[in-house]
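Hey, weird one. I pasted the Formamidopyrimidine-DNA glycosylase sequence into the form twice and got a warning about non-standard characters only the second time. First submission, copied straight from the form history:
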Amino acid sequence: MPEMPEVEGLVEFLRGRAVGLQVTKATVSAINALKTYDPPLTSLVGSTVTAVDRHGKFVDVTTDAGIHLVFHLAKAGWLRWYDALPATIVKPGKTPIALRVGFDDGSGFDLTEAGTKKSLAVYAVRAVDDVPGIARLGPDPLSADFDRETFGALLAGRRTQIKGVLRDQSIIAGVGNAYSDEILHAAKMSPYALAATLADDDVDRLFTAMTETLAEAIDEARGKPPAELKDAKRRGMRVHGRRGEQCPVCGDEVRSVFFADNSLEYCPTCQTGGKLLADRRLSRLLK
């Protein structure tokens, strides 16, 4: 799933390519991806892109018509940019393309989604807070006013595992499964630690790990075209998606815990004092 650093990379790319261009095409080929009907998506045609911004994992393309094209790539979505947009007609249900947008210089992009579980979401709205997911977002951890005290206040009293807190978009915007693994590894903290039980030095360490991990990943994504962002993300991971490999810090084997639709990765030596966390699939079999 694209998370904050990759989405920020996409936003910077689109900001450099699309701002100032006029929209000539806005066509949805996956009807279930379009979550709004007023204003119609076609009202974007003829407008000029004035800004591209990020809200958590949402991309916000603003136009001078007062309409925002907002999209969330979900788990398997991505953006494919063309300097020359293909002239072929996109047939609904026949391709992985969910949305096609074209500009007056001949360029444009497709939003694509792989797999059978379709979660990519597209919105045409007059105000970004009209998108329910954006209205529910917590603060951005890399915003200027997000400091250690703000972070500590968000954790205080939460009897929730810290892995879940980091992933909850209503608490902290933009961090997902992959970067929460990376942040917890950098902080040398168990994903099962309860937020409310963290000591002040734990919170200090976690705040530093979060801000530095995300900032480094954004720096790695910066300047790369969409086609290269996924590989840049994979290369930067120390534990996420590296089950069975050696931890780059201590050399222990990276382990996984599997859930219904995802997994977490961690290093026992760095994060849990050598303790192996129970594999939830095996636990169910033993009941």
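That's the output from the first submission. The warning seems to come from a hidden character in my clipboard, not from the data itself. The chain has two domains: 4-135, 148-286.
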